[in-house]
Amino acid sequence: MSRASTTAAAPVLDVLDTDGSRSPGCRVRAWRPPVPGISEVFHAHIVDYAYPLHAHDTWTVLILDEGAIRYDLDSRHCAVSGADHVAVLPPGVVHDGRPAADAPGFRKRNLYLDPAFLPASLIGSAVDHTTFRDGPLRQALARLHQVLDADEDPLDAEARLAMIGQRLTDHLTAESSPPTRPEPQAARALRALLDEHTVRAVSLAAAARLLDRSVPHLVRSFGQAFGISPHAYIIGRRIEAARKLLLAGLPPADVAITVGFCDQAHLTRHFRRHTSTTPARYASAAGSRAALTSAGSVNNP
Fold first, then answer.
1. Which of 44, 127, 262, 275 is 20 to 30 Å from the Cα of 284, by its Cα?
2. Residue 61 forms beta bridges with which residues?
3. In what order do the strands lie in the sheet with 76-80?
4. Nearest by Cα to 207 from 227, 224, 192
5. What pTM was estimated for this model as a whole?
6. What is the pLDDT of residues 146-188, one digit of tens each?
């Protein structure tokens, strides 16, 4: 196993290359994102390799992108093969893992979630019903992995994770309770909180504690009230601030950090989406117009 260096964007925990004579093609990438509730993200391509019996102290949520996997969980024979399957392995329960007999290997994406992410009372249900078919949930997990892989704003990943957590709870609970109705007052309170923390966005977990509401409830209420997600709202506020600073002559790299983006590339990606142009071109056009206006004033006193 070779350790990879930690980068500012995505702290990589390890990259595994198994012995080429036994398992050519096996490769693992893992990192710890700055998202409350997620202990580790784990992407793997496994070929001709079997995991030994082991247990995690976290919840494991697994989706497959290719192939099929078999595993024994607490002496139960389990499998994941369909494109719309999701597997949930509870903390502290011994299991293994290997390619299915008719598959040479598999590609999987795991989320390792903090032990308190789901109630401990659901562990027994997760042992009894570790795999279920849910296409929309599988798609939501795939999109969350894309967001995490792209190192997007943690607020977006946190909101997606909260809704996924609610769906997982519904699957593992015999009688899922209907979600509480969206609450306009909670939505307004969250917006005020986001407005106070535009540059360094407050986490949804912290907002939920301050407002005494659950994260899924806040996300649903905000979307119902304003037709936009908390993350998209924050990005919009940052873009508005960036436009003013660019028109004032501040360089794009400085603007990015000032308004809360991690770097100029991050600003550019969102700025182009909002304005159809880049920050540099936006500033350049503003500078050209200012120069023409100044020249006109000189020629026409």
1. 262
2. 88, 111
3. 51-54, 95-99, 69-73, 76-80
4. 192
5. 0.79
6. 999 987 789 999 999 999 999 999 999 965 556 678 899 999 9
